[in-house]
Amino acid sequence: MVALSLVRRAKSRLAAGVAGSGTSAAVWQIGDIQVELRRSARRRTLGLQVKEGRATAHAPASMSETKIRAFLELKRDWLTRHVRSQQATSAVQRGVHLGDSWQFLGETLLLQADSAAKKPYRLVGTLYLPPQNWQKHLQAWVSREVLPLYTELVTSYAEQLGARAKLGKVRVSATRSRWGSCTATGDIRLHWALSRAPLEVLRYVALHEAAHLLELNHSPRYWAHVKRIMPEHANYRAWLRQHGRELLLEE
Ligand SMILES: [Zn+2]
């Protein structure tokens, strides 16, 4: 964690006028860095902090935007340097940050913080997330949004395989160990993070599990069903072996 503070004595007329106001937050763009601005009535100084690749400015509730912006612009090089270097080192462990792009069912979304939001919401190509525990919010949002397509894919493959009658419920899973599963009663689960993979890879996993409705094993008979529908399936298995771990969000 790196913190930079600028001490500033609150002006008495302002300090007297803002009693009772709570905390508020907004996100500002300084150069190509996003800075979350947090205002608080109790705060007397303007401070700037960079933690885990994210910048936060803490300001007194009454301080003018012009003053805050001037301070941030003055510190722009410092900000950029610290945010970039922290992102570079944390990229290995965490991979994804607010402000990054996010693959979702073949589309590219931009992940943005919205500190006023209680839940994630999507506006065209941007997914806004509450910055606190944003990974958990993201995972919950994805898990909810992918269910219709996952269900449609599995159902369609079950139909093509002549196994529609054996299909139970389709669900979204979050296990660390497998991309999909199929039970003896025909319930199929597909991992939420498959929505980050190329669509062909997602389709392959949907087919892989649907084919287990016919054969609950990986025998040559099982693979013959898969091959019949998707002759190039080996490419997608190879992709998953090589890139699968990258799809998961590290805690
Ligand atoms: Zn299998």
CATH superfamily of the largest domain: Metalloproteases ("zincins"), catalytic domain
Radius of gyration: 24 Å
Q: What ligands can be seen in this structure?
A: zinc ion
Would you tell me which CATH topology of the largest domain applies? Zincin-like
What is the helix content? 25-40%
Oligomer: single chain
Which whole number gives the mean pLDDT? Answer: 85
Gap between N and C termini: 18 Å
Please mark out the parts with pLDDT under 50 across 5 or more consecutive residues, or reply none.
Answer: 1-21, 89-94
Q: Identify the overall geometry.
A: elongated
How are strands sequenced across the largest beta sheet?
1-4-5-3-2
**Number of DSSP helices?**
7
Our count of domains comes out at 3
Please state the structural category: alpha/beta
Written as H for each helix and E for each strand, in order along the chain, the element string is: EHEEEEHHEEEEHEEEHHH
Q: What is the level-2 CATH architecture name of the largest domain?
A: 2-Layer Sandwich
- The CATH class of the largest domain, by name, is Alpha Beta
Pfam family, one: YgjP-like
Domain YgjP-like metallopeptidase: 44-243
Protein name: YgjP-like metallopeptidase domain-containing protein
Overall description:
By secondary structure, the protein is α/β, with parallel strands linked by helices. The chain has three domains: 2-94, no CATH class; 101-137, no CATH class; 138-247, Metalloproteases ("zincins"), catalytic domain (Zincin-like, 2-Layer Sandwich), CATH 3.30.2010.10. It is 40% helix and 25% strand. It contains seven helices and twelve strands. The protein has helices spanning 12-17, 65-74, 76-94, 134-160, 199-211, 220-229, 233-247; strands at residues 2-6, 23-30, 33-40, 46-51, 54-60, 101-104, 107-113, 121-123, 126-129, 170-173, 180-182, 188-191. A five-stranded mixed beta sheet has the order 1-4-5-3-2, with helices on one face. A four-stranded mixed beta sheet has the order 6-7-9-8, covered by helices on one side. Bound molecules: zinc ion. Zinc ion binds next to loops. It holds the Pfam family YgjP-like.
